[in-house]
Design goal:
Blueprint: E1 4-6, E2 9-14, E3 36-38, E4 43-52, E5 62-69, E6 78-87, E7 105-113, E8 125-126, E9 133-140, E10 148-157, E11 163-173, E12 187-190, H1 194-201, H2 208-223, E13 228-231, E14 253-257, E15 260-264, H3 266-276, E16 282-285, E17 300-303, E18 311-315, H4 324-344, E19 350-352, H5 363-373, E20 383-386, H6 390-393, E21 399-403, H7 407-412, E22 418-421, H8 439-443, H9 445-452, E23 456-459, E24 495-496, E25 502-503, H10 506-528, H11 530-541, H12 555-566, H13 568-571, E26 576-578, E27 581-583
Parallel strand pairs: 3-11, 12-23, 13-16, 16-19, 20-21, 21-22, 22-23
Antiparallel strand pairs: 1-2, 1-11, 2-4, 4-9, 5-8, 5-10, 6-7, 6-9, 10-11, 14-15, 17-18, 24-25, 26-27
Helix pairs in contact: 9-10, 10-11, 11-12
Length: 584
């Protein structure tokens, strides 16, 4: 289909993995390629770039964005304006060349909804001369969508219904049930920082206002194939300065009286019930010891006088791991907590953390901390992120969340229950989701997890809106690097919305696509076997695809989806997808 230029304004469909920057001299025209493929049950991500070619009063033109689609469920499509964010620290020195930008820059990431507002207001976009922008469209594909080729158009119309620009594209629906089932095919944890929600929205922790916000964010996570939820029994000891404190977000009520302890699991019960009805299947209890080595107890708040609601800190940085008092506390807490979980039928949903990212010098303290915990867990697994593979190889963690640079070696050594994570430091060769990276580098994680046989993925920052070590709060719309500490985008993947709901990002959409890639490959593997699918992936890639070696071009995903669609096992007999649609 041709793209239309009217009144010196341009609109063009572009690859959704292309990050459109204002100063781009040219953008790729997706309409010039083969039809875009869509599988029933998925949400198709579309992107349209637009700009004015000259001034000619376009500094005053504001347009609503109208979707015209022959596809079913077009009325359910959602439209977003892609907005820029400042990236002061885009990456560390020595990063590889697979970045869009390595210097301070304004880069696209925020997805601002353009859906009609309840007030009746219709959001507009503004054309700027010689300044590219883009809109993102989430177009759901009905599970029972009829196979064939459909036309999808986007029109930019002003307040007097004058058409200023439009673009069209052909979408071919594949006759397959591949993505109808939205159940995640790999486990996925993004750490929700409950204190950051309370701080940003200026509400009291676990007030009804706070619960409403937490519930909105958790439901959003469940909608985006995130099925594992960090659960703060006590305030998580994560990215906290030694001796410092984060805002208390403790789900377990503790009373310390007469040399003993009583526990209240009311808040915890509400949290777990909320999570399990929001798409969450795994409850991930926060670390029971401090980060980076399990050297100390976390902050534990308790009432210490009968009838008093005032809480004081009874454990924290001053409590060494070997302090017998904390061991006695755990010996009282854990049997009571496990008994509660058992009575509710929730133990199969639970995993536990000892300490996040212990190092090679922390094995003794970590081992001792583990010995205080595991006798009470009745077989529930210990899971921790480890950058030192010796923790996995020695069995100190039951579920090893291994850094991407070591995970394949850990699996080759015979460790079977393995997840992967990447950290801010991975700026060469490996996948990551820094804002300065191309979209394809973020999306590839889904194919990599399948190809490597890794069971899950964890990232520490769903919404870490603090500076490094939580020394101060930040505005994520202005500071994307935790105060020039981590490459922009590493600390969070959503932004805070004004109504207590999260605002999505391009990078979260790429993670959604990664989850769909994994579903696609898993479905095909159920038909022809995992090894055959791995061979198909390598054939499309042109080499063995690993966590470190993978195609850098966005066209790889188009070729892979087409290879799956063309496979005889996909629909029972061979079909080819052409510009004319379905060719039996």
């Amino acid at each position: 289909m041709q793209n239309h230029v009217q009144q010196k304004a341009t609109a063009v469909f572009v690859d959704n993995l292309e990050k459109i920057r204002p100063t781009d001299t040219a953008v790729g025209n997706l309409a010039d390629r083969d039809n875009l493929l869509a599988f029933p049950g998925e949400t198709l991500g579309l992107q349209v770039a637009f700009r004015a070619e000259e001034f000619q009063d376009y500094d005053r033109v504001r347009c609503k964005v109208k979707l015209v689609s022959g596809l079913p469920l077009a009325d359910s499509a959602k439209v977003f304006l892609v907005k820029l964010v400042p990236c002061t620290l885009t990456t560390y020195p020595g990063a590889d060349k697979n970045y869009l930008e390595t210097k301070p820059a304004l880069l696209p990431d925020i997805l601002q909804s353009l859906d009609d507002e309840p007030s009746g207001n219709i959001p507009r976009v503004r054309f700027l001369p010689e300044h590219w922008q883009s809109v993102w469209i989430d177009h759901p594909i009905a599970a029972d969508a009829a196979p064939g080729t459909y036309t999808v158009s986007v029109e930019f119309i002003d307040d007097v219904d004058k058409l200023h620009a439009s673009a069209s594209i052909h979408v071919t629906v594949v006759p397959s049930a591949v993505l109808v089932d939205r159940t995640p095919t790999f486990s996925h944890s993004e750490w929700l920082h409950t204190d950051c929600l309370a701080t940003y929205y200026n509400v009291d922790v676990f007030s009804e206002e706070h619960w409403k916000i937490v519930e909105s964010y958790v439901a959003f996570m469940g909608q985006h194939s995130i099925d594992t939820l960090l659960t703060p029994l006590f305030t998580p000891t994560l990215d906290t300065a030694r001796g410092g404190e984060r805002l208390t977000v403790q789900l377990v009520g503790v009373s310390a009286e007469n040399g003993g302890y009583r526990f209240d699991f009311t808040r915890l019960e509400r949290w777990i019930s909320m999570a399990l009805t929001s798409g969450i299947t795994t409850i991930e209890f926060g670390p029971l010891f401090t980060q980076w080595g399990a050297k100390h107890a976390p902050k534990v708040m308790a009432t210490t006088a009968a009838g008093s609601m005032a809480e004081t800190r009874i454990f924290g940085w001053e409590t060494d791991v070997g302090d017998g008092s904390y061991g006695e506390f755990l010996s009282a807490l854990l049997p009571a907590l496990v008994g509660f979980l058992t009575d509710k039928g929730w133990t199969a949903h639970c995993v536990w953390h000892i300490s996040d990212e212990p190092g090679s010098d922390d094995i003794d303290s970590y081992s001792y901390a583990r010995s205080l915990v595991t006798p009470h867990l009745k077989g529930m697994p210990i899971m921790d992120a480890i950058s030192d593979s010796s923790y996995a190889l020695s069995g100190l963690v039951d579920r090893a969340v291994s850094i991407v640079g070591e995970v394949e070696g850990v699996m080759a050594a015979g460790v079977s229950d393995v997840w992967a994570y990447y950290s801010c430091a991975y700026t060469t060769n490996f996948t990551n989701r820094h804002i300065g990276m191309p979209g394809s580098r973020t999306r590839i994680i889904g194919v990599q997890l399948f190809r490597s046989g890794i069971g899950g993925f964890l990232h520490w920052g769903f919404n870490f809106w603090n500076s490094q070590y939580s020394l101060e709060t930040i505005n994520p719309y202005l500071v994307t690097d935790a105060g020039m500490a981590f490459p922009a985008g590493d600390p969070f993947i959503v932004y805070p919305g004004a109504n207590g709901s999260p605002v999505s990002s391009l990078r979260l959409k790429y993670m959604d696509q990664a989850a769909d890639d994994h579903r696609l490959l898993s479905h095909l593997a159920a038909q022809i076997g995992r090894q055959s699918v791995c061979e198909l992936i390598d054939e499309v890639a042109g080499h063995e695809l690993t966590l470190e070696t993978y195609p850098h071009d966005a066209s790889f995903f188009t070729r892979l989806r087409r290879a799956v669609a063309d496979h005889p096992a996909n629909s029972g007999h061979h079909r080819r997808w052409t510009m004319q649609g379905v060719d039996a």
